[in-house]
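Protein folding task:
====================
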Amino acid sequence: MRAAVLHETGQDKLEVLDDIEAVGFGPGRVRIRVRATGLCHSDLSAMNGVLPQPVPFVPGHEGAGEILEVGEGVGHLKPGDRVVVCWLPACGACPACRRGQTELCLAGFMNAGTPNFKRPGGDVFGFAGTGTFAEEVVVDAGCAVPVPDDVPFDIAALIGCGVTTGLGAAINTAQVEAGSSVAVIGCGGVGISAIQGARLQGAAEIVAVDPVEGRREAALRFGATQAVAPEELPDAKQRITAGEGFDYVFEVVGKSATARTAYDHTRRGGTLVIVGAGAMDDMLQLNMFELFFDEKRILPSMYGGGDVLRSYERTIALWRAGRVDLAGLITHRVPLAEINEALDQMRTGSSLRTCVEL
């Protein structure tokens, strides 16, 4: 079986190997033939060590495919079923799940320390307990979420992470109010999805902020009312809000510097939503007076901040109705053999989402 492997943290190239075996199949588990997977910036973050991940590992967590085999005790799936790979499944029994905060369930993270693959040289892990840069993957049955047959594999893959994260940040976490002003800092696939979510919620002004001109142009097609480079954001704040600041600002980069910028451009009493996944040693500095005096809400948004299964269903319904554009997010398509070229496209910002077709 073929898979793309990172041997050591900090390497910028993956090696595509054909001697990988998906392991761990048994009761409560399923084997999936991966048909499409998206490249998410979190994959890069795991490769460079920003996000902790044992090595060697197969990146990829935004995938879709079909069930090849189901283990004993799996009753809701059968071979041939089309599924989305959910990298953060809810166990349904932990305190977070019982409170209705299923996006905070830690069951999925427990899988990250168990090897998903092996090769003659030893064990190989799967990123976030999955590893979709591979032709096959074995996961807990809860990680395989059935989707209707009319949902193409590439669209289903996007729903598995980026789209759910961005839409959910606007709809579930921020609950953007109609007529409000919004700024989105970072306009890759997740940021564009947050823009679409803000549009769905009825925001009057949506300002896309990104250093890459192509991404700014794309943001306008997906619902942004204006698109500016980062150095132009203060002027946009002055023009649109008379200097008060935006009602909602989404930080979709995962760096303290952009989070600080987002805070500074949120109005007093407004809402800052942290969507980007950053490093554990990257500290955001706020003083105690401004926290008290400005009364700005700071809301982290984990995987869209809501029930993942409900979010998948909602996204499919919106896509069918033509209310969100998912196909337009896919700017590049490559085979697994060209995975490193696709990673370079993501690093430079020349792609919104690249679909790897397996």
Notes: The CA atoms of residues 310 and 316 lie 10 Å apart. The longest strand covers residues 29-38. The mean pLDDT is 96.
